[in-house]
Amino acid sequence: MKTSFLDFEQPIADLEGKIETLRFAQEDSAVDISEEIARLEKKGQNLTKEIYAKLSPWQIAQVARHPQRPYTLDYIKLIFTDFEELHGDRTFADDHAIVGGLARFNGQPVMVIGHQKGSDTKEKLYRNFGMPRPEGYRKALRLMKLAEKFAIPIFTFIDTPGAYPGIDAEERGQSEAIGRNLYEMAGLKTPIIVTVIGEGGSGGALAIGIGDVVQMLQYSTYSVISPEGCASILWKSADKASDAAEIMGITASRLKTLGLVDKVVNEPVGGAHRDPAAMANNLKKALQDALKHLSSLSLEELLEARFTRLMAYGRTKEQASR
Amino acid sequence: MSWLKKLLPPKIKRSEEGTRKSVLPEGLWSKCSSCESVLYATDLEKNAHVCPKCGFHNRLNARQRIDLLLDTEGRFEIGSEVLPVDSLKFKDSRRYTERLLDASESTGETDSLVVMQGALNNLPVVVAAFEFDFMGGSMGSVLGERFVRGVRTAVEHNIPFICVSASGGARMQEGLFSLMQMAKTTAALTKLSEAGLPFVSILTDPTMGGVSASFAFIGDIVIAEPGALIGFAGPRVIEQTVRQKLPEGFQRAEFLLEKGAIDMIVDRREMKSKLAQLLAMLQKCPAAA
Question: pLDDT at position B26, please?
Answer without folding.
Answer: 55
